[in-house]
Design brief:
This protein is α+β, with helices and mostly antiparallel strands. The protein folds into two domains: 161 residues, Roll (Structural Genomics Hypothetical 15.5 Kd Protein In mrcA-pckA Intergenic Region, Chain A), CATH 3.10.290.30; 49 residues, no CATH class. The protein is built from four helices and 13 strands. The protein has a ten-stranded mixed sheet. It is flat, with a radius of gyration of 20 Å. It starts with 8 loop residues before the first strand and ends in a 26-residue tail after the last strand. Bound molecules: zinc ion (3 copies). The site of one zinc ion has 7 residues, from helix 1. One zinc ion binds next to loops.
């Protein structure tokens, strides 16, 4: 996989660039709580389950429901074609429970999952807890979420992005120039192929490829992910 130098990220509150662990310390020492108040918040670290290159620190209102967190994860990292998703917290699944069954009231499938929208974060989370999230059960992107801390503060947003990894530096596998495409045909291979614009054009003529844009997301090159809903680019944050 492509590598960023030490997987550094940017603090969205002051623009400072730091490593993942140092960012945690920095957020606590310098910023949290952002303002004094009595709204309960969690500081949650979000990472892909199988990679350490992408990460987020988010402040989430503990009175929000799981759907709010689902919406945020979809918009910053995941949404491609409206796939299903689910959280697993302490052995319990939470999803968008689909009403399905026949006229006689028989269920088509048994599901023990509870509805995200009716699940309030502070009823199921506590500091130190680690839980998982899956987006898309066909070509899944699995995330690991850690409840780093709980504190009281003030604000109007349900979710605030506090820090995010810098975009990875990806080189064209063929010529070494900066890549702009990932090939969805072989993202699961040991050595996925990345292309600059020129080499991408050539490859499209000569073989079967499915070129998707390079994105700052663990879903890069998967399904039809193009990152168009991601409004949280690090370039929008002052240094
Ligand atoms: Zn900062
Ligand atoms: Zn998709
Ligand atoms: Zn190239």
């Amino acid at each position: 996989m492509p590598k960023s130098p030490m997987s550094k990220g940017r603090c969205y509150l002051c623009g400072k660039d730091l490593g993942k662990g140092a960012m945690n310390t920095h957020l606590h020492k310098t910023h949290l709580p952002i303002a004094l108040g009595d709204i309960p918040y969690y500081l949650i670290k979000v990472e892909p389950y199988y990679s350490k290159d992408y990460w987020l620190y988010v402040q989430v209102n503990a009175n929000s429901n799981l759907q709010v967190l689902d919406d945020f994860l979809r918009s910053i990292w995941l949404e491609c074609c409206g796939h299903l998703s689910a959280f697993r917290i302490d052995g319990q699944d939470y999803d968008v429970t689909v009403e399905a069954g026949d006229e006689d009231g028989n269920d088509w499938f048994e599901s023990d999952a509870l509805p995200m929208i009716e699940t309030i974060l502070q009823d199921v989370l506590e500091p130190g807890m680690v839980f998982t999230y899956d987006y898309d059960f066909g070509t899944p992107t699995t995330l690991k979420l850690t409840v780093v801390d709980a504190y009281q503060g003030k604000g109007t947003e349900a979710i605030t992005l506090l820090a995010r990894n810098l975009p990875l530096v990806v080189a064209c596998t063929t010529c070494g120039k900066p890549a702009v495409y990932a090939d969805a045909m072989n993202m699961w291979d040991e050595e996925p192929h990345f292309y600059c614009r020129e080499c991408g054009k050539k490859a499209e003529k000569n073989k079967e490829v499915n070129l998707l844009p390079i994105t700052n997301s663990p879903r890069m090159g998967v399904c039809a992910y193009e990152g168009e809903q991601d409004q949280y680019g690090v370039e929008t944050v002052k240094r």
